[in-house]
Design a protein that fits this description.
The protein has about 240 residues and is an all-alpha fold. About 70% of the residues lie in helices and about 0% in strands. The protein contains 13 helices and no strands. Helix 5 packs parallel to helix 7. It is globular, with a radius of gyration of 20 Å. The chain starts with 6 loop residues before the first helix and ends in a 7-residue tail after the last helix.
């Protein structure tokens, strides 16, 4: 029978994997255990969400949870399916309709997603600033960096690492290196392990590998990966 891991044990395994050499057999075994642990969490989450939907097939929040889980699994088709279900259940629920539009846009259905988000704003003018995120992705990947910068400013969540990340990538593309390095400094303050896990963090919210590469490209043009941490620390971090 396989061992059962608690949340604290999962955290301990993760920390151990981060601080050991994966060439070592024990470390490799640890990474496998961690992978199986996290895989188990996602499988249990799917089971519980499906159970919730079975108990109450009219629960928009259950489909909201399913959308987010499928984003982490990078399953575009399932994101779209569950987002549509959210809309169909109650198209007049302002916030959750906007969330459904957010997921549609994140899954690549930009035009439709933006229309749904705009409808949600008419139903509920006080929408969260993170609704701007797919707008940033859309403008950034098409090369409209001025507009991408405006949406990054509208994102507003200063203590969430995506805020300086977006600014750094855009400033890198705009060749505004001083501003870019200040944003990178802020990013590293919020996520000290970002240099080791950059692709993981970006791909957790960005579903297309091509989009992930474009964002990382902007960060490298900003000086990420070239400048040392002590060089970045000379730049005054900006509150974005």
């Amino acid at each position: 029978r396989p061992p059962v891991y608690s949340d604290s044990m999962g955290t301990e395994l993760y920390q151990k994997m981060e601080t050991t050499d994966l060439k070592n057999l024990d470390s490799y075994k640890t990474s496998v255990k961690l992978y199986n642990y996290l895989k188990g969490i996602r499988l249990r989450t799917i089971v519980r969400l499906r159970k919730a939907i079975k108990i109450d097939p009219y629960c928009q929040h259950a489909y909201y949870g399913m959308c987010y889980l499928q984003l982490l699994r990078r399953n575009e088709e399932s994101i779209v399916h569950n987002a549509y279900k959210m809309i169909q259940l109650n198209p007049n629920a302002g916030f959750l309709t906007g969330v459904a539009g957010w997921f549609l846009a994140i899954a690549g259905k930009f035009d439709e997603g933006f229309r749904v988000i705009e409808k949600s704003r008419k139903l509920n003018p006080v929408t969260p600033s993170w609704f701007q995120f797919p707008c940033f992705i859309f403008n950034y990947i098409k090369g409209d960096y001025c507009q991408a910068l405006e949406t990054a400013k509208a994102f507003e969540l200063q203590d969430f690492f995506w805020s300086p990340l977006m600014h750094a990538a855009v400033f890198g593309k705009m060749r505004k290196i001083d501003e870019a390095k200040a944003a990178l400094c802020r990013l590293l303050l919020l996520k000290p392990d970002f240099p080791q896990r950059a692709h993981y963090y970006v791909s957790s919210f960005v579903i297309s590998d091509n989009w992930v590469d474009k964002i990382l490209e902007g960060l490298f043009e900003a000086g990420f990966g070239e400048a040392r941490t002590d060089e970045l620390s000379d730049k005054k971090p900006i509150l974005i």
